[in-house]
Structure formats: C-alpha cells, structure tokens
C-alpha cells in the first residue's frame, strides 16, 4: 500500500531490521502497536494496541548480536515509551534499557524514537552509562498548542520545552531530532510561524519534515480547513530550509574536534583511497578516507568540514575504541 510519508516511519523502521547496517548495527523491535489516537495517524487502526516483547527475550537477542560482533543495538518500536504496559511486574522501558546495559556486552545502545510523554523523571539518568548513545528522536509534530490539541498529541509547547531542557542538561553532546508535520488541517500562517519560532527556540539538531496528507480512517481526514496545496508546499520548503540550517550549525560545532565513528559502508574510492561512511555516537554521518578493513570498527576521527547532511573527517588512528 502507498502510505503518506508521515505514516511510513514506524513501518520503515521495521524494514530496517536485518537490512541496512547488517553486521554493524542490529535493529531490535521491542514493541508494536499504540494505545494513543493521534488524529493524523493510521497506526492504531493498522497495528492495534501496544504489545511488548518480554524483557528476557530482548536481552537474550542482544547478547547474541554482541557475541556475533555487532557494535550497536538500536531499539525500535511504534511507541517505545509505552513498553511494558501490557507486561506483568510493572516492567517499563527504563527497566528494559537498564537490563540491556547490565546484562549484555553490546558496546553501543541507541533508541530509535520516543514520543515526548510517559517519560519518567529519572529517565535521562540512564545516560550516565556512556554505552547509551547521546541521540534522541522525539517527534513534536507542531509548535502550536492549538494544532497539538487538534492532533490529539499528549504534549504542549511548555512540557516539550521542559523535557528538551532536562534531556540536554543530562546528556552531553545530545543530538535532539524531531518530526514536524506541516499543513495540518486548521494550521494558519500564524500557527506555522509559531512552529518555525519554536523549532528555532528548541534548536533541534535535525528535522524530519512531512507535508500533511489525509489518511482514510483517521479523524483528521474529516477535519474542515484543509490547508491548500500551494500553502502547504511553501511551508514545507521553509521548514526544510530551517532544518538544514540547524543541522549545519550542529555539525559546525564539531569542526576541529575528535569524535568516535562506527564505520559501516565503503561509499567510493578516489586518489585518496577508499571513502568510508559511518555514524558518530550522536548520530552525525561522517565520511572519511580509510583503510580497507575499517568496516564495523569504531575509531576516532578529526572533523574537518561540516555540511548540512553530515561532516567530513580524517581518521586519527585505526585502533578500535570501545565505549567505557
Ligand atoms: S503516539 Fe500517535 S503518532 Fe505515534 S504511533 Fe501512536 S497514534 Fe501514531
């Protein structure tokens, strides 16, 4: 089925499992479905209520990935924050992460996406363990309280701001990314301007921008005041431009610094030799020249040049670095 772009992400995350990043990053789906009813989202209709995998099964699977040489595990799910609600013993997502850190040897652990609610106060203390990577994707969708209510999102400008501040205070070098839906029904030019300002204020490090289109079976498809195509297109263009600017600013901060990179793919070759691509702990895409055996190794890189879509660097030495 052809899905509008903003519906694709949870499903795409599932397709990633065992595909992209094989033998470097393992994608582990720990949860499916969702109990929320965001008015634009078809997930509840298509995937049903939230279901969690048992904690012990997830730990065993990650132990196996670590033993097989994977450097990184990425926890995926449709609504990770609700992990455990359907299990017994009051298990939560916090407990799952703690158990993986305590009982597996996986060098790097990443969370794919976390809705900005149901996050307990002490959640960010988990990042005291450097194996939990400083990267959080928290979908905001709009910076207007009016639109957030129409979307039935369980967050607001004030609560998201508080959460972002707490995350940044607890997690050094955090890469905070988000999703924004542009042109949701009822979004006026003023609402859109409010969202642009809010995105700048929070200073997201990366934006995924989606142009709203109605999904049959969702409440928002029936809403009046659908935004006309040309206005939606223009707002999307402006939001994407802002996202690129924020990413570039984030990447520029690291020029001259050394970052650890997990090398995943040889992307080409030129007079300088093989060109490799990989990701830093905080999920900045790095390309650099390197030796033929860089695959699945974590090495330090000096960042030399920043671009909107990543950075270019120089491999400092080829010794493998492990998280502490
Ligand atoms: S939280 Fe909202 S957007 Fe996310 S999966 Fe559930 S219903 Fe969809």
The percentage of residues in β strands lies in 15-25%
Q: How much is the radius of gyration in Å?
A: 20 Å
| Integer count of domains | 3
Bound molecules: iron/sulfur cluster
Structural class, from helix and strand content? Answer: alpha/beta
Distance between the termini: 44 Å
What kind of assembly state do the chains in view correspond to?
single chain
In the predicted model, the low-confidence regions spanning at least 5 consecutive residues are 1-21
The tally of helices reads 8
| Helix amount | 25-40%
Morphology: globular
Strand numbers in spatial order across the main sheet: 9-10-11-13-12
CATH architecture label of the largest domain: 2-Layer Sandwich
Mean pLDDT: 90
Structure notes:
There is one protein chain. The chain folds into three domains: 1-133, Transcription Regulator spoIIAA (2-Layer Sandwich); 134-252, Transcription Regulator spoIIAA (2-Layer Sandwich); 258-315, OB fold (Dihydrolipoamide Acetyltransferase, E2P) (Beta Barrel). The model is unreliable at 1-21 (pLDDT under 50). The relative contact order is 0.11. It is built from eight helices and 13 strands. The protein has 324 residues and is of the alpha/beta class. Strand 9 (258-270) and strand 10 form a beta hairpin. Helix 3 runs parallel beside helix 4 (93-103). 31% of the residues lie in helices and 24% in strands. The strands form four sheets. A five-stranded mixed barrel has the order 9-10-11-13-12. Iron/sulfur cluster is lined by residues 34, 36-38, 41, 43-44, 78-79, 115.
């Amino acid at each position: 089925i052809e899905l509008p772009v903003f519906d694709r992400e949870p499903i795409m995350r599932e397709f990633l499992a065992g595909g992209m990043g094989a033998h470097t990053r393992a994608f582990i789906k720990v949860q499916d479905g969702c109990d929320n009813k965001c008015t634009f989202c078809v997930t509840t209709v298509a995937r049903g209520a939230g279901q969690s995998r048992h904690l012990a099964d997830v730990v065993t699977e990650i132990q196996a990935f670590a033993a097989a040489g994977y450097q990184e595990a990425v926890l995926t799910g449709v609504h990770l924050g609700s992990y455990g609600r359907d299990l017994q013993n009051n298990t939560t997502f916090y407990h799952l992460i703690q158990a993986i850190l305590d009982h597996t040897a996986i060098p790097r652990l990443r969370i794919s996406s976390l809705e900005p609610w149901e996050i307990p106060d002490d959640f960010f203390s988990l990042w005291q363990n450097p194996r939990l990577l400083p990267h959080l994707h928290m979908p905001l969708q709009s910076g207007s309280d009016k639109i957030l209510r129409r979307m039935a999102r369980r967050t607001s400008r004030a609560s998201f701001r508080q959460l972002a501040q707490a995350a940044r205070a607890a997690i050094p070098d955090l890469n905070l990314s988000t999703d924004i839906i542009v042109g949701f029904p009822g979004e006026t030019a003023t609402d859109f301007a409010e969202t642009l300002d809010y995105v700048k204020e929070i200073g997201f490090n990366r934006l995924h921008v989606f142009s709203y289109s109605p999904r049959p079976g969702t409440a928002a498809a029936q809403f009046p005041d659908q935004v006309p195509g040309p206005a939606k297109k223009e707002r999307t263009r402006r939001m994407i431009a802002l996202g690129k600017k924020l990413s570039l600013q984030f990447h520029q901060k690291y020029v001259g610094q050394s970052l650890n990179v997990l090398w995943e793919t040889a992307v080409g070759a030129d007079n300088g030799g093989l060109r490799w691509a990989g990701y830093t702990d905080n999920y900045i895409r790095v390309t650099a020249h390197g030796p033929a055996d860089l695959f699945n190794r974590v090495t330090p890189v000096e960042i030399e040049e920043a671009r909107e879509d990543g950075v270019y660097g120089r491999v400092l030495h080829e010794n493998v670095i492990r998280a502490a």
